[in-house]
Write the structure tokens for this entry.
Amino acid sequence: MKLSKRESRVVSSAIDQWHEEGVITDDDRSKLKGSYEVASIDWSLIAKYSFWVAILCIVLSVLSVLLDKWLIELIEQIFSAPDIAKSGFLLLWPRAFISTA
């Protein structure tokens, strides 16, 4: 079982207290202490994911600067479309995600 550092300190002190009080034997104490391990943090994995998130943020910020005018025009066209076109789009759009299998 993997425990955090705080949890392992609590469990270890509880086991030590039980041993001092005579509730468990030396053999039980060693078995209990060997039944868990302290979970370590994989800093290299966190660094790798942080790097990819930073790259994604840079790409999104550059795209938002470059495509800002185009996106505003697209949104204006959508809102200026006739009501029947908006209704038809909203009627058909959810059906594109429904599986026919």
Notes: The mean pLDDT is 89. The helical segments are 5-21, 26-33, 43-66, 68-79, 83-92. The first strand starts at residue 2 and ends at 3.
